[in-house]
Amino acid sequence: MNQLFKSTVYGILRGLRDSVAGFGLIFTYDTQEPPKDVSSKPPQETSLARRRAVQQAEKKQKQAEQKQEDENNVLYRIMQCSILNGIVFGLSMLFFEYVLLPSLSVVMGYFLASAEGDSRVWMYVQPVLSALFNMFWVMPIFILSRIINTIWFQDIADSAYRQRQGQPQLISSLSKMVADIFISIFIQFLFLMQASLLRMLPLVGVSIVLSGLHMCMLHALYAFEYRWFNMGWELYKRLSYIEANWPYFIGFGFPLAAITMYPSSVYLSGCLFSLLFPVFIISANEAEPVPNTSGYSMPLFSLVVGMSNYLIHTLVARHNIPATPCKTHPTRR
């Protein structure tokens, strides 16, 4: 029991450390050692050896140029995410809430005869202004940023993976890849609903802990899924791995979950997530997950995987679509 406790704590702390490592790693992408010049060879080499040496030098030069392009692309995309989510979206919400609305309240006070009239009118004006601001600015920017961020997150993940790991090894079949993506999104949505329902349980403390564990696992899955997808791992293998090594991934997902769970505004939570998530993509790409030596898995995804399988099989049977079932249920190692 003591060894189990130590193993669990170590995995959580290691995941926590690796998750925040990305804040330092993003500044090391332009400090790689330049490739050595292999074009100069001893004079006794044959012409065939010289040609091979030249080809190898050209190949390494292209790889170095690709790596430099990936380095610049990672930093450039992270800067774009910071500008879009931090300045355009986040600061505009703060400006409206803490600068524009208080200023309008003060200005209205000068045109109203009494403080009572001021408060009564402002009680009706403030919700209308907030609704208009959310409708015509926050909602469109939120939707647009989610679409743009999805593209940029993928670009950051692909560039970081190529620079550190090499060329991605995607799922071989295009149909399996498309099915994997859509089923993964559906399972993540169901898992988020599962976490939200647990948070509504009338058990003080227990509901927060259970919901928090779910959100930690979900945010870790968000970050690592780019890397695992580029490694060619199918959905069942990704979920099986994260369930088997749950202490590490709970620790890895904790910082992002803690930051995004408690803002009262869904827009502010989404803004913080989009602003910080690229760093956790970098962390996941560089991390070495610690295996769970206890042998006890945490099958939190089993319920939603079973639900998704049932819904998909029901839909296929209802429309008489000849298809083989997708292997999406996590297998135990």
UniProtKB/TrEMBL annotation:
The chain crosses the membrane at residues 87-112, 132-153, 174-197, 203-224, 245-261, 296-316. Its main location: membrane. Pfam families: EI24. It is found in: Membrane. Keywords: Membrane, Transmembrane, Transmembrane helix. One of its GO terms (cellular component) is membrane. One of its GO terms (biological process) is macroautophagy. It is a multi-pass membrane protein. It comes from the Eukaryota. Belongs to the EI24 family. This is Etoposide-induced protein 2.4. The gene is EI24.
